[in-house]
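Collaboration report, partner site 2.

Our partner group contributed sequences for two proteins of shared interest, and the home lab folded both. The records are reproduced in the order in which they were received, starting with the first partner submission.
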Amino acid sequence: SRYSVDGSLSANVDLTGTRASPELDISGSVEGAKVGQVTVAQVTLNGRYRDRRVIGTLDLRQRDTLVANVTASYPYNLSLESVAQRRLPDDSMRVTVRSRDVDLGLVESFSPAIRRASGRFSADMDFSGLAKGPQLSGNATIVDGRATLPNLGIALDRVNADLVARHDTLYFNRFSVVSGDEPGDSLWIAGTLTHP
């Protein structure tokens, strides 16, 4: 299937150093990005490369509100000369995603497939360790979430979630959602999901 892409992109790139050890600084933003029916008001990116390590931050904003902040530090050899290995699997890496008390009503502005959204969402997730085998840790919560999916004819109510990740195991302390008035119109989950 095909998706239309729209938006305004601006970027600054500064490359210095030597061929064996280049230094890169980059900053940029995308305004009014639209891919298919998904719209994002603003994405900003700042990154740098020094000493075989890429470090960057990305902010996602919708309606002038910070929805998510992503920070990353990843080992990689960007030498402009031929090298035996670009990836550095025995070096450390980290990717952190944070969303602090976000109004789920913002979800509506991302896609027309979601309507009447409300509730609060928070997440603090960390993917870190050696590049050859990082692990997931952190937590995510949804409090009193609601949303209507008109294309599917589904109304979700009383969505509550408390998820904790530790050492690649996801703990569902609570996940519940109601989609109607009948006894079978609710879902409750508690348990663990472990990466093999």
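Second partner submission, folded after the first:
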Amino acid sequence: IQIFNITEKAIFGEIVDLKLSGMLHYKELSYQENAEELKKFKKNDVISVKIIEIKDDKIKFSKRALEKDPFDWFKENNKKQGDIITTKVQEALKNGVKVSVDKDKQLIVLIKKNDLAKESSDARPEVFSPGNSLDAKITELNLEQRKIKLSVKAAQIDEEKSLIAKFGEGATKSGATLKGIFEKAIGSKKKKKEEK
């Protein structure tokens, strides 16, 4: 299409050689869905798009339909709701932390402040530094509606349950040290060997 107008929310363009015009909404520019991307284009630019809808003589275009969907990462890596994944911190905000799920940083998710840690005193976004790894549980994943919710808190609770199942109730009590937990685990293995 050749662009003939750009507004705050959309690009209007005409299909080259056909004299049919339509709209390219900013959410269809890329999977980032950022209106700022409109600034990358100017009147008379020619861009490739896909027709995604024709309704009542109105044509809707999509540029992102020509790109790989970042949400495919979940299918490609066989990840589903309930799984724990390792993310990379991109940015700390007042209301949470933005993390990237994929190595190409195409899929950025905001982990809200109340999901950053099991203890509310540890759920401070400013303690998370860009570039650090962060394990989070997928608590919501809807590929059709393109919704994802991640929780570090839920991952910590799962880890705690796993420690209790493996090493007993004392494994998560405050004051329990890794050394103490491992000594308890190694000690129980030694006893089993001695019993044989």
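Feedback sent to the partner group on the second submission included the following. The beta strands are 2-6, 10-15, 20-25, 50-55, 58-62, 84-93, 96-100, 108-112, 133-142, 147-151. Residues 88 and 103 are 9 Å apart (CA to CA).
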